[in-house]
Amino acid sequence: MGVEQANGTPEEAVLPPTEQDVYDELDVKMKKYLRGEGANLEVLKDKKLKGQLVIREELYGKSAKAAAKAEKWLMPSEGGYLEAEGIEKTWRIKQESIAREVDILSSKNQYDIVLPDLGPYTQDFTSSGRYMAVGGRKGHLAVIDMKNMGVIKDFQVRETVRDVVFLHNELFFAAAQKKYPYIYNRDGTELHCLKEHGSVLKLQFLKNHFLLASINKSGQLHYQDVTMGEMVANYRTGLGRTAVMQVNLFNGVLGLGHSGGIVTMWKPTSSAPLVKMLCHHGPVSALGFHPNGHLMATAGMDKKIKLWDLRKFEVLQTLPGHAKTLDFSQKGLLATGTGSFVQVLGDFSGAQSYSRYMNHSMVKGYQVEKVLFRPYEDVLSIGHSMGWCSILVPGSGEPNFDSWVANPFETSKQRREKEIHSLLDKLPPETIMLDPTKIGTVRQWRKREKPTKEEREAEMDAAVEAAKSNPLKKKMKGKNKPSKKVKKREELVARAKKPFLEVENFSRKRQKMSEEIELPKSLQRFARKKATS
Length: 533
Fold this sequence. Notes:
Layout: E1 3-4, E2 10-11, H1 17-33, H2 47-74, H3 95-101, H4 104-107, E3 111-114, E4 121-125, E5 131-136, E6 140-145, E7 150-156, E8 161-166, E9 172-177, E10 181-185, E11 190-193, E12 200-206, E13 211-216, E14 220-225, E15 231-236, E16 244-247, E17 254-257, E18 262-266, E19 275-278, E20 284-289, E21 295-300, E22 304-309, E23 314-320, E24 325-328, E25 334-338, E26 341-346, E27 355-361, E28 368-373, E29 379-384, E30 387-392, H5 412-424, H6 453-469, H7 482-516, H8 521-524
Helix pairs in contact: 1-2, 6-7
């Protein structure tokens, strides 16, 4: 409420400095969400249009204000990166130095589990990052609660394990074993043996479609619906054996890297690849997709790491180096691993130009099998030949989680409700496509243009020439006379002309019928009059 001055004009209320700072901060955030400066509506003479645009501008302002308030109050945490001083480089900073500066809870995320007799290890996280499944090549499987670093269940299957992947939540996970993939629950009980998949090398789960995808030794790609158990698709890639497979979370398209340097992209409703692109002059060793779906990273045996723009299918950047495994974080950092060396690359310019951000060298003799960023945490998990470990990578995880999407602290009741809602919102396989923004739009109708008379004649002439140039078979004596050859040639020419003559006769007949129809007397005055000579 304003204060009256001596001249009767109200004086603006003076707000406390803290409240004023909050309003200033909200104004700054609002500018980020506004669509530029508002249009000058005073020059408009049409009152109706002016009123509609005024309402529209008010809605834009309200939505920008709501977005600014949500960012201010609902997303309080801000992500940060390592910052070097002077001539110092971020990639020279060691994990010991980072551990000394972070809080106790974050320092607990830095560990090294050594199990030399059961490795190399591969791992997978749930969408919330709360649980981790690990699988050792010698048959060791385990489910771990990352909140308190407690082992929920670990057991030995006594055969080779090549890959593990969680299904829709932490209650079920699939393991690619020596002969077939198996599905287990969190207590280690075997639920299903998927014999139709064969000897699987790599597994991926499409959580929005409830599809388990696998690639086996024979180069066969399988899609199985885990809700009904039916096999949705089974395709031969035709490009040989591969163990490089990654799903694009943006559109559900599956990427495969092959030994000929080719990357193919698949969907369950197409027996042929959607995209087939030559990425390297040697076998593809690793593949990764950015969370925004428009950037792909590939590594090949030609010792090059390439970044691709999937909207144009062009190379954006080529980096020297070899990588056995690649993974993008939620904030766009790229982790590469080869031998006993892990490198993290970052795009800090915003121009999709990646440069070195962090380096990590493991104990000599450790061979990296898989690198994987933990969701909603600044942690990179590394599976290697002697076990698995994790390092701190500041700025890699999303600082604010949405409890409706992925809640690391969800209760069993919330998990049940979320499972039911996700089943109700399950997407059919037909919705998987390269550009998912096309879903819900209307396809534009294009009117077919009729070919002109000259074009029809040209097509008929081309068909006749093709019929004349067609070589005739040489037949036995008596049936190969010149007269019979001429007759056969005339039959071929007549057969080539027939479809064009039928179309022309049909259009003439239709025109004649329309002319012969006698209109009622009341409508005859509107008919086109014939020209009188």
